[in-house]
Amino acid sequence: MATPTARSGLLRANLTVASGTALSRLTGLIRIIVFGVVVGQTALADAYDMANNAPNVVYELLLGGILAATLVPLFTRHLQDDDDDAVNAIASVSVVVLGVITAVSVVLAPLIFRVFSLNTADQIDADVFRTAGTALTRLFLIQIFFYGVTSIITAILNARKLFFAAAWTPVLANIVTIATLLCVRRVSNVDPPTLAEVVDNKSLQWLLGMGSTSGIIVMTFGMFIALRRSGTQLGWNFDLSHSAVKQLLRLSGWAIGYVAANQVALVVIKNLAQPGSGNVDAYSKAYTFFSLPHGLLAVSIATTFVPELARAASQRNSHEFDRKFLSGIRLTALATIPASIILFFFAEPVVELLLQYGNFDSSATTNTARALSGLAIGLSGFSIYLFVLRGFYSYGDTRTPFFINLFENALNIVLAIVLVKKYDVLGLGLAFSFAYLVSAVLAFVILRQKTNQFKTLAN
Asked: Cis peptide leading into 192, omega within 30 of 0?
């Protein structure tokens, strides 16, 4: 049983993460409100959204999934053993790989954006759309390196049960981005700004592109300062033959496949939304609202529970793992089910109240609310699904989540293709929800079978 001290420590950690995440999500919401006021739900909004997604897609596809799936469990084990050499080797190799991936991605920016814009809306000039989107994508792709460094530092701090910085530094990124968006009208010659102006007006192009990127850079420096203040001293140890690096690579193969499936689904969904029609922006903004309760409630719970799950798994303490795991599931469900109901029934008034200003008109509100209603149904399923997968990662199992996720994404794509024809962005939201609800149940059943096997072996 957990001691009162341990329970109070976990509660403090949850409150730390939740409060930081709340402010981060609030400033993120302000960011999309300001963007809607300045740009509206236009073809430029779609291009900006897709370009801004590009660094996340490339980073997650090539490295982010590896880091998210393996770093906290690995760092937890090595830090428990005071194996600083292993931690330094993993961090050093990851930083070098990040630099290479970022450089190559910037060069391939036209191809990367083209993949997202295969099915542009009929009412726009596809060439202008892709030219503007590519210009923004090049500037956004610089974020890959800084996202990666932030993930490494976050994993080290979380393994040490230090959660404050990772929860609070995203606020800095949002503040910087908001400040730059407020300057758009000063450099733009038309209101709202258009795709053609982004192509011709270099000041506008750099303001939109580097505004978001500068925010990510500031966030990374904030994390670096937190790492230094924690007393952690990282040293350079670029050793590809180190056992810890080999372990990371061994676990990463399935993680890459997991993320690849996610990105394929994302590309399909974005293209089904017809880039340039405004539907991409509607789905993106709806997903931001959907992410608010998930990030505030579910992510806070998962962030503080994962080191505990990893520790129990590394000690082969299946009873403690079960206790923590089931507690996390219950908390996640209790937190997200009411939020799901509220989002579903009040989608349109919420979007209208928060976004319908300036260039974001009533039709944009209706479109965004439809997408949000569809997504809201799957909030609990999505949150529980991701929590369950962290249970697999705690055991060092990245293979099983790959196959579960492959099923989830295939189901999402099939449902999206069927439902988008009749329900447009609402159909895309419903497809997402149904896929995650089914997959959450499947993942839970499989993990329970796995932990029961460990119990049998232990006895």
From this structure: yes
- pLDDT number for residue 1: 47
**Confidence (pLDDT) at 395:** 83
For the stretch 32-75, pLDDT in tens is 999 999 999 999 999 999 998 888 766 665 555 555 556 656 66
Which stretches within 346-398 are classed as H helix?
Answer: 347-355, 362-376, 379-394
Would you place residue 147 in the very low, low, confident or very high pLDDT band (cuts 50, 70, 90)?
A: confident
The vertex-317 CA angle with 314 and 322, nearest 5°, equals: 110
Most distant CA atoms of the chain, gap in Å: 73
Q: What are the domain boundaries of the chain?
A: 16-250, 278-459
| Least reliable range by pLDDT among 153-162, 347-356, 391-400 | 153-162
- Residue 315's contacts (CB-CB under 8 Å, 6 or more residues apart) are none
Residues 6+ positions from 223 with CB-CB distance below 8 Å: 149, 150, 153, 154, 157, 165, 166, 169
Helices (H), 236-346: 243-272, 279-293, 300-314, 318-345
If 0-12 CB within 10 Å is exposed, 13-18 middle and 19+ buried, where does residue 174 land?
buried
From 301, 384, 286, select the one nearest 344 (Cα to Cα): 286
pTM of the entire predicted model: 0.77
Q: Compute, in degrees rounded to 10, the torsion defined by CA atoms 318, 319, 321, 322.
A: 110
Tell me the DSSP string of 317-338.
Answer: -HHHHHHHHHHHHHHHHHHHHH
What is the C-alpha to C-alpha distance for residues 316 and 310, in angstroms, rounded to an integer?
A: 10
Distance, CA of 323 to CA of 309 (rounded, Å): 9
Share of the chain above pLDDT 70, in %: 86
CA of residue 83 relative to chain centroid, distance: 30
